[in-house]
Amino acid sequence: MNNIIAPTIGGALIGLSSTILLFGIGRISGISGIFGSLITTFNKENTWRVAWVLGLLVGGAIMLSLYPHYFDYEFSFSKTKLIIAGLLVGFGTRLGSGCTSGHGVCGLGRRSMRSLVAVITFMASGIVVVAIENLLK
Amino acid sequence: MRNIVSFVAGIIFSIGLTISGMVNPFKVKGFLDILGNWDYSLAFVMGGAVIFNLVAFNIVLNKKPLLSESYFLPKKFKADRNLILGAFLFGVGWGLVGVCPGPALVNAVTLNGDVFIFIFSMIIGMILFNIFVKRPSPSKR
Predict the structure, then answer these.
(1) Who is most buried in A46, A56, A69, B17, counting CB within 10 A?
(2) Residues of the domain holding B104
(3) Could you tell me the pTM of the whole model?
(4) Rounded CA separation A51/A32 (Å)
(5) What is the pLDDT of residues A109-134, one digit of tens each?
């Protein structure tokens, strides 16, 4: 049951957070957009983005110190894989105007057709990559 | 005040990502392994968040935002080539390592070197997009 309850509560918190940001300051919680704008443009409009990312890091630090078991895994991959994946995630999310949060959580929540197409596309390519990787093991 | 709201939203988002298991790259890879040994649990993260927002966004978008003149919503409605190509490339990267941008940033608090290699590469990818493709004035959005 914990297999379902924890993810559902976590998901609801993510929904709550994106509703707070939308109703509070009128913004969509798209992480690739927030982080991407932050690192590629420098202007006053970015302060809410800085605050949001700081909150994300502080939240992570709180969880790590109070409940370290959530981080009980070995984040370890080959350097080549990390670099290729990082480049693809960075470039792809900007070209596609969003990632799991912007298109998935917020876009689907707004019933956006574009987001639905994006979610189906990145889910499909992710599934194919994992399947190919397992075949090559 | 706007920054405080944003900061608090960031904290809650991060707690949600952590509790849900989205920060664990191997859980994400298990979720994407539909054709093999599928770990369906993360479907409830997206499900929980989307169902919450389908209700909450519907209520909120009929009102004015509390601390802003209007909503900043995407103006495009139809999927185009860039959207599909971008989402495809993102999915390949997501499948390879099992982290999307949010969980990557949350994982930074573990100070693991591999996480920083990923984040650094992600930043380079975003900068490359700005150099080669950049849309008209995204900074004003």
Answers:
(1) B17
(2) 2-140
(3) 0.94
(4) 15
(5) 999 999 999 999 999 999 999 999 99
